[in-house]
From TrEMBL:
Pfam families per UniProt: B_lectin
Protein name per its UniProtKB record: Bulb-type lectin domain-containing protein
Signal peptide extent: 1-27
Keyword Disulfide bond appears in the UniProt entry: yes
Domain Bulb-type lectin, first and last residues per copy: 31-151
Superkingdom to which the source organism belongs: Eukaryota
Organism classification: Eukaryota, Viridiplantae, Streptophyta, Embryophyta, Tracheophyta
UniProtKB keywords: Disulfide bond, Glycoprotein, Signal
């Protein structure tokens, strides 16, 4: 098997960050409280920064167009960690992302006059916030979270983010194309964490597993601020530490 085919590192970027905060680009706005009526466009104010400036939510360049997501703004290489509607083609520079003022929703407006919901919410949002954890959050008027990007993971797990069973991370097609790729990591109801190829999510085709079974149906994959990756069982006990584990029959890229 070629190095390029090594599954964990290449296709599923589970990122661990210990990053310093650097200067902020001009096209971004430091605003952790995003009020109704706020908007972004790809070429003017293109994103809302978290307080520390490390993360941003908004437009990022994808191919010849722009997609909406969360990315690391505090480093030169703007690493995308979450994408909204990842399998929808990028939009042109004329699009607008708007936290609408009336029936408060987060919508992407394109010149074809089509409004696409970025967050699927049943309640009216009151304000939004780009948190320093990388979580983009919508709140109701009571300050309760009604939607958060952490609950809709794409291909990344960020420190403090939890992947509860049953949930998956799907690899991206490539480093520059965040649409769904060909592998996924599933936190299963039985407590096992398994890597499968899309289309064949059966044990015979699983190419890695944590071997943590029979934990009840509320197990979860956790990544803490120290970069420890571990599985908790339904009652909150560590059933496996993954960070120190090496894959036996491969080069030890992650140990
Ligand atoms: C954006 O809108 C302007 C003015 O309506 C138009 O001339 C231009 O072609 C549009 N750009 C794209 C990429 O669609
Ligand atoms: C979780 O692990 C602890 C410690 O091993 C165990 O006592 C508990 O029963 C487990 N919980 C479930 C739901 O399996
Ligand atoms: C996992 O690591 C933590 C911290 O190093 C340790 O306290 C715990 O006992 C470990 N659990 C297992 C199941 O290995």
């Amino acid at each position: 098997m070629q190095r390029d085919h090594f599954p964990l590192m290449h296709y599923l970027t589970i990122l661990f960050f210990v990053l310093s905060i650097s200067s902020l680009a001009t096209a971004q706005q430091t605003q952790s409280y995003i009020s109704r009526g706020s908007s972004l466009t790809p070429t003017k104010t293109s994103s809302w920064l978290s307080k520390s400036g490390l993360y941003a939510f908004g437009f990022y360049q994808r191919g010849n167009g722009y997609s909406v997501g969360v990315f690391l703004a505090g480093i030169p290489e703007k690493t995308v960690v979450w994408t909204a509607n990842r399998n929808v083609p990028p939009v042109s520079g004329n699009a607008t992302l708007l936290l609408t003022d009336a029936d408060v929703r987060l919508v992407l407006q394109t010149e074809q006059d089509q409004d696409t919901d970025i967050a699927d919410i049943s309640q009216t949002a009151s304000y939004a916030s780009m948190l320093d954890t990388g979580n983009f959050v919508l709140y109701n008027s009571d300050g309760d979270i009604i939607w958060q990007s952490f609950a809709y993971p794409t291909d990344n797990l960020l420190p403090t983010q939890i992947l509860p069973a049953p949930n998956e991370l799907f690899s991206s097609l490539s480093l520059t194309d965040q649409s769904t790729g060909i592998f996924f990591l599933r936190m299963q109801r039985d407590g096992n964490l398994v890597l499968y190829p899309i289309g064949n999510p059966i044990p015979e085709y699983a190419y890695w597993q944590s071997e943590t079974y029979d934990m009840g149906d509320k197990g979860s994959l956790n990544l803490d601020l120290d970069g420890r990756l571990y599985i908790l069982n339904a009652t909150g006990f560590t059933s496996k530490n993954l960070t120190h584990e090496c894959l036996e029959d491969r080069e030890p890229y992650i140990c």
